[in-house]
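Board work, copied verbatim: Aspartate aminotransferase
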Amino acid sequence: MSQHTYPTSAPPSHSSDSSKLRLSQLSSQLSPMASTHFDADVVPHAPEDPLFGLMAAYRNDTFDKKVDLGIGAYRDNNAKPWVLPVVKKADEALRTDPDFNHEYLPIAGLANFTNASQKLVLGADSPAIREKRVCTVQTVSGTGAVHLGALFLSKFYAGRTAYFSDPTWVNHHQIFTNVHIPIATYPYFSAQTKGLDFEGMLDTIGKAAEGSIILLHSCAHNPTGVDPTQEQWKEISRVMKEKKLFPFFDSAYQGFASGDLNKDAWAIRYFIEQGFELCIAQSYSKNLGLYGERAGNFHFVTGASSDAESTISRIASQLAIIQRSEISNPPAYGARVASAILNDQALFAQWEEDLRTMSGRIIEMRNHLRSKLEEMGTPGTWNHITDQIGMFSYTGLTEKQVLKIRGEAHVYMTKNGRISMAGLNTKNIDYFAEAVDKVVRET
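↓ predict structure ↓
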């Protein structure tokens, strides 16, 4: 076998100089650019989401009595996530179903789920369903439903301003802004009464341009826990009808607020009864505890007319096109769990009982907190704690007081004084009340 030998010394100097020149030229061609198209002026650093930052701070706190009142998720009396018993039953049935698979759902979602969801929010005897003027697209929970609706309106209802309550769920602003819909607010929470600023709300809505989009929380307003009464809803409907405004309902807490699925859907059904064309974002995160499964729907209800079926068919076709370009197919597992519960009489009854358990525990915490604060003579009035409803309560605490409680008592809540009532339990509620009492007296 022949052997190859390789030189161990450099070639002549003139060849070396030539090679160095070529390497230098090549290096300059391959060197990274000195700048980027995406510098800080173009892509500034986004601020941290305040709620997720609060959650991180809580997790990193090693204090043994720390209390998390920030996250909007149900917790049991041991401060643990609660898987609804009915969800466990549906989950077990799915896992043992020999026909279960992980195939794609249709673009519009699981039909058994979307059809049953229409009946849940609109009522089984809804004339809109009977007259076939409703279309539903399964979405990535409530966030996806709000986004799909906003994107549809930005394309086919352009030029209108969307009005949100002040305050509202912070993501409403981001979603509508991202699809280039102008936004404005209407007064909602009264700092003086810690209730609804009804006159301010009606006045602003009444001055909105014809055709404006009015986003409404159907129940358990997030973040205040303040809902209009049925009489107030009727007046809101009257003003909106006169001004020909477009209602966009966000329904994230049906059944979770009062424990009664029908009662919590009253406002939506009343508006449809009044002849409104409207849309609804529906979530099953809270009322079924399917937070991570992202089960939700977007419903569009058109007005009663001779060509309503044709109208809703066209709207459904465009929603499907948008959905295709956004996510193609919605997630299946949560929809299958929800569908099993919605379409089985025994499971549905069990769900209603589970809803009463969750809403009932939160009502107990509201009553206990108010009683404890009043028993201690904490300065101020505290009836708003029990007047409000649902997962959240606007305590009336200032940002300064909130930060002081966090620093001294390791109680975590958002800076605006909103607390998740589900974070309170029989083990920490007195500790929290005492921390509130101390900071209110000091400040």
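The domain at 104-343 is CATH 3.40.640.10 (Aspartate Aminotransferase; domain 2).
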